[in-house]
Design the sequence.
């Protein structure tokens, strides 16, 4: 099990997930290989740090609070129910996804964050002692739709701004905003970590990878892109720590040497110190939707910490 590294605040990042790894720091709409989930986390975050020099200090404060809340057990008790606003930006009929497809994604979030997913029982015995029921629920609050002439939106938050043809977030301090649009370049989605501007807070998912029906496209058609991205929105890092044998700041996840794609065969061993068995079925890896089906207890504690009194998302935990 890895040691939590508080000094790793430099890895705190806005996350942009695609079906292949990219390297552009301006816009991640690059050509991706098919059937590989990937992320350009560092590049996008570095861009935000250049634009907002105070962001690093703010996120360090959130990290300090998170670790203190986990250590001292000051977590939210009871059920947290998060209202979700879905903002659909469409050029084609296919992009104007149905309410049925939208609800299918809300259903997946509720299952995955409450250990009600049918594949939860597939968690290997090796990790059965740390698999978690996070206990956070989601309810569809509103759906807003807007026609556009844009063929793709990229990763610079244009879809979140009416001045750029997008849709401004609705009550972002009390409601989780999801933007559904064509991002471009094979990118599946991206999320903003706690600490960023409320004007851009939320999660963006490409309509081809949203929910379980309609335009949802295999192997990312089980709604797990949103589960992964909402995990980031709740302050989770990628399980390999976005570095070779890096830290995700969680104590009960094994050290991964790198991201895993596709459907790894269990047991899959890390090349890091101790060669631990990797938790490839964790939602914060890069496996196909069918290959990810658990959060760990450590990840649960990290997520719940942001909803504690004084936490960066405490407003979401109020009645």
Sequence:
């Amino acid at each position: 099990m890895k040691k939590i590294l508080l000094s790793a605040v430099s890895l705190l990042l806005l996350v942009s997930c695609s079906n292949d790894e990219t390297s552009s720091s301006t816009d991640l709409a690059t050509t991706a290989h098919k059937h590989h989930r990937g992320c350009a986390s560092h590049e996008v975050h570095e861009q935000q740090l250049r634009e907002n020099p105070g962001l690093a200090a703010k996120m360090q404060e959130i990290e300090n609070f998170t670790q203190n809340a986990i250590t001292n057990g000051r977590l939210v008790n009871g059920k947290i129910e998060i209202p979700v606003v879905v903002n659909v930006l469409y050029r084609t009929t296919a992009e104007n996804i149905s309410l049925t497809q939208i609800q299918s994604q809300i259903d997946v979030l509720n299952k995955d964050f409450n250990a009600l997913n049918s594949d939860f029982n597939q968690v290997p015995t090796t990790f059965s002692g740390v698999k978690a029921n996070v206990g956070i629920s989601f309810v569809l609050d509103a759906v807003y739709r807007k026609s556009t002439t844009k063929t793709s939106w990229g990763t610079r938050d244009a879809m979140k701004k009416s001045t750029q043809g997008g849709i401004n977030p609705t009550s972002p301090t009390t409601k989780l905003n999801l933007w559904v649009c064509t991002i471009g370049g094979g990118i599946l989605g991206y999320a903003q970590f706690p600490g960023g501007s409320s004007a851009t807070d939320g999660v963006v998912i490409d309509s081809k990878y949203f929910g379980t029906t309609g335009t949802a496209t295999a192997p990312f058609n089980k709604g797990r892109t949103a589960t992964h991205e909402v995990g980031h929105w709740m302050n989770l890092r990628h399980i390999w720590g976005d570095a070779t044998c890096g830290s995700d700041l969680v104590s009960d996840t094994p050290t991964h040497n790198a991201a895993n794609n596709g459907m790894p065969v269990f047991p899959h061993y890390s090349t890091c110190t101790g060669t631990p068995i990797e938790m490839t079925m964790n939602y914060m890896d890069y496996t196909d939707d069918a290959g990810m089906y658990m959060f760990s207890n450590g990840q649960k504690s990290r997520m719940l910490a942001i909803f504690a009194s004084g936490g960066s998302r405490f407003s979401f935990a109020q009645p």
User: Anything to note?
Assistant: The longest strand covers residues 136-147. The radius of gyration is 18 Å. DSSP finds five helices and seven strands in the chain. The CA atoms of residues 54 and 137 lie 32 Å apart.
